[in-house]
Amino acid sequence: MSIIRSVPVFLPLALLTVLAGAVVVGPLVWPIDPYTMDFAAILAPPGPGHWMGTDSVGRDVLARFLAGGRLSLSVGVIVMLGGLVPGAIIGVIAARAGGIVDMVLMRAMDSIAAFPPILLAMAVAIGLGGGLWTAVIGVIISTLPFFARLMRSEVLRIMSHRFVDAAESMGATPAFILLWHVSPHAASTMLVQCAAVFGYAIITLAGLGFVGLGAEVPTAEWGVMITEGMKYALTGQWWLTVFPGLGILVAVSAANLLADGLSATMGGRHA
Asked: Which residues form the ABC transmembrane type-1 domain (predicted)?
C-alpha cells in the first residue's frame, strides 16, 4: 500500500473541515471588507494590522483569502453535485436500457472525454462569454463522463449479483431495485469520485481564473488573487501569491487524499 493510501481518512476530512470552518467563521473574527481599499497601506507586509498583508490597492489579503475560500469551496461543491446528478442518471439509463441507448449515451460521454478537461472547460467558458458561472458550466460538463461511466459500470456490476435476481423473482420493480439495492451499493464508489471531482473543480476553476476565463477582477477568488499577485512575485511581495496558493494546495491535496483514503477503505475501488 502506498504512503498516500496509508493516510487515515479522518485526517484529510478533518483538514477540509478546518479549512471550511475557517473561511466560514473567519469573517466573524476578522470583519474586514475584502473589497475596501486603503491607499495608506498599499503592499503592506504581513503584520499585526494585516496578518496576510495587503495587495496593490491596500485591500486586506486575509479578508480576500477568506472570501476566496468561501467562493472556491462553494463552487467546488456546486460542480461536484452538478456533475454527479446528471452523470449518475445518464449512467443508470445507459446500463438499464442497453442496446442502442447505451451505445449513444456512452459515445456521447466518450466525445466529451476525448477533450482534455481543462481545454474543454476553457472552450465552454470562451463560447459562453467568460466569467465564473460559465467556467462552472464548462467544468461540470467536463466531469460528466467521470460520473456516467462509473455509474454505468457499477449498475452493471451490481445487477449481476444473485440478490438482485432474488428481488426480481419476488416481484420487485426495476425502480425499487435501483432505489433499494443498486443505489446503496453504488454510493461508496460514487462518494470516492465526488471527493476526487471536488479537488479537481477547485484547481480547475482557480486555473481558469488565473488565465482570465473564470472569476474576474476584482472578485476575491484564489486564482484571481494569484493572477493579481504574479506581477509582484519578483519584487518581494510574496504574500500576494503564497497565501492563495497555499489555500488551493491544502484544499486540493486534502480532497485527493480523502478520495484515495475512501478508495482504500472501501475495498480499493478507484473513482
From this structure: 69-259
